[in-house]
Structure prediction request, 197 residues.
Amino acid sequence: MTEKEKMIAGKPYFAFDKALFKERQLAKEKVYDFNFSKPSELDKRNTIIQSLLGKTSNSFYIEPPFRCDYGYNIEIGDNFYSNYNLIILDCAKVTIGNNVLVGPNVSLFAAGHPIHHEVRNTELEYAFPITIGNNVWIGGNVVVNADITIGDNTVIASGSIVTKDIPSNVIAAGNPCKVLREITDEDKQYYFKKLRI
Prediction:
């Protein structure tokens, strides 16, 4: 197996393999062009993102700056919005559903390093996927670690560190991130009453 095949398969791999290094450099060039484009150059920015990511829709908005490792392992659904400073270490697949909102300074880390220093010092790395469902809101300064699934319609509160799967239809918060409660019809009615809709 090549180092890329190992990476994609979730096996230990050497990230400084020449082929992987070349792919990361290509992604950095595209990310640079995206991040240093003018605010008025929306079409140019969208074209760059569509050429970088593995899957996009025609309806997305990513505020610069943005960072990723490869790009081709990232899939975003319809109506995706990300605020400033989104970082996605996409050494494994990162799949994001429809109608997902991401606050500023969010980090999605599909990549990891061995815990024991002797193994870590060999420069071996690993990567496991991240899956984010539909209608999810991730607050600012959230970190999502490798091998995590966040269910549909869920809210992850600002500042949370997600180390375990989070189910659908809940509000979760904290370090480590834990479910606080389910989202109910009362949550919907609250805003209708508050805004007099």
About this structure: The chain has a mean pLDDT of 95. The chain is about 25% helix and 30% strand.
